[in-house]
Design brief:
3-stranded antiparallel β-sheet; binds carboxymethyl coenzyme *A
């Protein structure tokens, strides 16, 4: 194993350490500081983990400088062009592309497990129609665990496949029901003859009163969007799933925690925020430049939503693919959306501006996805739900990888305490 010599000079005391250097399969290097505290009494402080690799992982490779994203070694461009979401889910979770018969039985299982327990349908009654579907989704995913007590033992690997299948399949149904609840329409059961993505559209948009035509173009684009969201290595929600799972928490509860993390506007919630921002610009009639200036103003809390990324310091390859698909599809369908024009002008203005150029802030995955969802008739507050649906295979694969790794320990970071030093309790009558 390679080692690196680290020479520390703290308060005049010199100490040299040999620390292991870990090299990834794409030659990226990390200094293993696991023994730092034992050898020196120091801990590493890295708020927001900007410089910390929390795990070794063989699932997704991301090079933010070059704009590369690969699942199990396969570029997302190839998966987007030739694969479908079910196959990508199999790839991420099992490590290899499925054979024909493996894919058939995977599809079969996803189809057979799509219904939720009838009692769970009544849970929806308790929510106001204005409930955000992410609130419903997170609690429903956790509630699924109540129906499958055998899956509560996270270390029972025999239950993994069936639990993962149930989650992948039922979360679609829950998501569609959350939407139907919000518009007061009857729930539509999943249909076994439909594909994974066609079923989502059918459950969301069909009504018992008339037949619903499933547009294959939308099915194709939904597949693409879900593929592009399927994994993104150690992002906020995935790290949450791993953190929660590291306590041997069951898969349902770990994924539910991931859904909550994803909801935040700096993470998956950004797709909803982007559309709301574009709509605000449209209604105000203001120039896009005004919003670029506002995003630069350090006295304002406004940020250009859908811009910037912790790891991409170049174009987000997912955004490039989504923008291309958006342009192609909307022109083919003859959809004229003023928000698309605003988005294009906003992107152009920001990419010319030195503030964005110097900070390497480019459009991310959320910048154009909402325009496509909108064209499909999906309401804004369902955007993050679709992100969650897409991210399920990644969360599941990461949870599985973590639990299979014998070196996994419960996640428990340290801190540097900055509060009061020891002082004593003062009785109420002695307080000033
Ligand atoms: N608008 C204006 N300024 C920005 C933006 C933005 N969207 N993003 C970053 N900055 C500035 C930030 O103010 C800081 O400036 P300075 O150096 O002067 O203090 C600098 O760029 C670095 O930003 P940061 O906040 O330190 O970067 P981060 O890595 O902590 O945050 C981010 C990444 C995605 C949270 C952030 O870029 C952001 O808030 N973007 C808008 C929300 C968004 O689109 N989120 C979706 C991310 S992609 C989907 C996903 O994976 O969830």
């Amino acid at each position: 194993m390679d080692t690196a010599k680290l020479v520390l000079n703290i308060e005049g005391k010199e100490q040299s350490l040999d620390l292991p250097v870990i090299t990834g399969s794409e030659k990226e290097k990390a200094l293993d500081i696991g023994s730092l505290r034992a050898k020196t009494g120091l801990v590493a402080l890295d708020p927001a983990f900007g410089n910390t690799a929390s795990t070794l992982s063989a699932i997704t490779f991301l090079d933010g400088e070059q704009g590369i994203l690969r699942y199990r070694g396969i570029p997302i461009e190839e998966l987007g062009a030739h694969s479908n979401f079910v196959e990508v889910a199999y790839l991420l979770i099992n490590g290899q592309l499925p054979t024909k018969s493996q894919l058939e039985s995977y599809r079969y299982n996803l189809t057979r497990h799509s219904m939720i327990h009838e009692d769970m349908k009544r849970f929806f009654d308790g929510y106001p129609s204005t409930a955000h579907p992410m609130a419903i989704l997170s609690s429903m995913v956790c509630s699924l665990s109540a129906y499958y007590p055998d899956a509560l033992d996270a270390m029972n690997t025999e239950m993994f496949d069936i639990t993962a299948t149930r989650i992948l399949s039922k979360v679609r149904t829950i998501s569609a029901y959350a939407y139907k609840k919000s518009i007061g329409q009857p729930f539509v059961y999943p249909q076994n003859h439909l594909s994974y993505c066609a079923n989502i559209l059918n459950m969301m948009f069909s009504v018992p009163a008339e037949p619903y035509h499933i547009d294959e173009e939308w099915v194709k684009i939904l597949n693409l969007l879900l593929i592009l969201h399927a994994d993104h290595e150690q992002n906020c929600s995935t790290s949450t799933v791993r953190t929660v799972g590291s306590a041997h928490t069951n898969l349902f509860a770990s994924i539910s925690a991931g859904v909550c993390a994803l909801w935040g506007p700096l993470h998956g919630g950004a797709n909803q925020e982007v559309l709301e921002m574009l709509e605000k610009i449209r209604v105000s009639g203001d120039s896009v430049q005004k919003y670029v200036e506002l995003a630069k103003d350090k006295n304002s809390t406004f940020r250009l939503m859908g811009f910037g990324h912790r790891v991409y310091k170049n174009f987000d390859p997912r955004a490039t693919l989504i923008k291309g698909a958006c342009d192609k599809l909307l022109s083919k369908k003859g959809v004229k959306d003023p928000l698309l024009d605003i988005a294009r002008r906003l992107e152009e203005a920001a990419l010319k501006d030195s503030y964005f150029v110097e900070r390497k802030l480019y459009p991310n995955v959320d910048f154009y996805s909402g325009i496509i969802y909108r064209a499909m008739g999906i309401p804004t507050d369902m955007f993050t739900v679709l992100f969650a649906l897409g991210r399920l295979p990644g969360w599941i694969a990461q949870w599985k990888e973590m639990n299979a790794d014998k070196s996994t320990r419960i996640v428990r970071p340290r801190q540097i305490y900055t509060g009061e030093t020891e002082r004593h309790y003062v009785p109420m009558d002695k307080r000033g």
